[in-house]
Design a protein that fits this description.
- The complex is a heterodimer of chains A (about 110) and B (about 120).
- Chain A is mainly beta and about 110 residues long.
- Chain A is built from no helices and 10 strands.
- Chain A has a 6-stranded mixed β-sheet with strand order 2-10-9-4-5-6, with no helix packed on it. A 4-stranded antiparallel β-sheet of chain A has the order 1-3-8-7, with no helix packed on it.
- In chain B, about 0% of the residues lie in helices and about 50% in strands.
- The termini of chain B are far apart.
- In chain B, strands 2, 4, 5, 6, 9, 10 and 11 form a 7-stranded mixed β-sheet that branches. In chain B, strands 1-3-8-7 form a 4-stranded antiparallel β-sheet, with no helix packed on it.
- The chains are: A mainly beta (about 110), B mainly beta (about 120).
């Protein structure tokens, strides 16, 4: 069973700063890695798939990278609406989600 | 516009049963895999069950295997989750999620607003 570990658990930053979120897989997932954003009271929203491809309508301040076991979601300059919880997910041989990283206002 | 509308949630006693429905619109329902994903209060996301476009293949998480059954009716553009032998730890928001293609591998490109299931006496 593939386990995804996200770090840090919480990221405290100010608007305008750069955010880097990590997702590490217990074994190689190739590029079958997606990132989702979830705000309070809302369902998750797809941000990135295939490790680095932005979903339709996602601003280019969001970027994904990595392959194999180590992946990163980067938000180049945080906007007020970006403060949320972010999940990674492997969608190849399993459908495992990471435990999430909360990006909060410092 | 893709829309997924869940219904059927509510309060149920331990050991009870409930059936969730997800009405789909805005896309060719019969061409895409579908899933249920749940989220316990204050917790992360947990995949629950998946079904291929035709309904010919289904998959269930170990935590619900033997108790939950996913199904679909393509003529009604509706996804279902039959839940039985419910336990307190099944309490969660249940989301219907559209797969990006007809079968694996697929990510979830659209999500419904969710149906809340509370298991309590």
């Amino acid at each position: 069973e593939i386990v995804l570990t996200q770090s840090p658990g919480t990221l405290s930053l100010s608007a305008g700063e750069r955010a880097s979120l990590s997702c590490r897989a217990s074994q190689s997932v190739s590029s079958y890695l997606a990132w989702y954003q979830q705000k309070p009271g809302q369902p998750p929203r797809l941000l990135i798939y295939a490790a680095s491809t932005r979903a339709t309508g996602i601003p280019d301040r969001f970027s994904g990278g990595g392959s194999g076991t180590d992946f990163t979601l980067t938000i180049s300059r945080l906007e007020p609406e970006d403060f949320a919880v972010y999940y990674c997910q492997h969608y190849g041989s399993s459908r495992a989600f990471g435990q999430g990283t909360k990006v909060e206002i410092k | 516009e893709v829309q997924l509308l869940e219904s059927g949630g509510g309060l149920v006693q331990p050991g009870g049963s409930l059936r969730l429905s997800c009405a789909a619109s805005g896309f060719t329902f019969s061409s895409y895999a579908m899933s249920w994903v749940r989220q316990a209060p204050g917790e992360g996301l947990e995949w629950v069950a998946a079904i291929t476009d035709s309904g010919g293949d289904t998959y269930h998480a170990d935590s619900v295997k033997g108790r939950f059954t996913i199904s679909r009716d393509n003529s009604k553009k509706t996804l279902y989750l039959q839940m039985s032998s419910l336990r307190a730890d099944d309490t969660a928001m249940y989301y219907c999620a559209k797969g990006s293609r007809e079968s694996r591998p697929y990510y979830f490109d659209f999500w419904g607003q969710g149906a809340l299931v509370t298991v309590s006496s």
